[in-house]
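fyi for ur records
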Amino acid sequence: MTKPTFSELGLHKNLLHVLRTKNYTCATPIQEKAIPVVLEGRDLIACAQTGTGKTAAFLLPILQQLFVTKSSIGPRALVITPTRELAAQIGDMAKRYGKYLNLRSTVVFGGVAMEPQKRKLARPLDLLIATPGRLLDHVSRKQAPLNHIQTIVLDEADRMLDMGFLPDVRRILKVLPKKRQHLFFSATMPNDIEALIRRTSRAPVMVEVTRRATPVEKVTQVIHPVQTEQKKELLKTILQNSDMHHTLVFTRTKARANQLARVLE
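which gave:
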């Protein structure tokens, strides 16, 4: 079956131009199903794994909505995401895709000084990307005007639940305008997330491109049962004896990450 091109999904010519310069022509399944729904202004629940193109599935139509209804009243779209790394990545993609749209966006997350973020939030904005805790800090100081938000995205909603952010998310939702578009993106759909969706959404469209709680097909998973004290040696052996050119290693804590980096160096 032929994959649909982005031009068939109703995207603006300025967005299509950026996509062509990056040799993006055909949409992924999540993009094919989600983009038209978002452009129609409908609520959406999308079950999709990392690596399926889900960020572009909500960013492209949101950027188009902001572009065709230009305004200087304040941020009109809000993306909430669980980690600073993901927030920064979405911010970079928003700037890349919006290159020819003349839109203004900013990213706020914890672990850095608030004052520079405060100055950015005080300027005219179209799109705000944030982690829950830091956004609430700005809201409590009346530094983040959210009274004109028309579309909210909860990205990786299940991870926000796992990381204990759901109470923060509920508090954020309470200060938003009642009339808004909800876009939920989650790899799994725990009961607490389903309950949140039922309370806030209006007849959401359900899009599921992979079975819930399953890995992306192109990812091969291997488990090595090993004692804690043997982990570092095992990792070194795997890195030395395999064809790994680019490797991402996760640890449970920041201290362990620093310790492991020193060992590998």
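The radius of gyration is 20 Å. thats all i got for now
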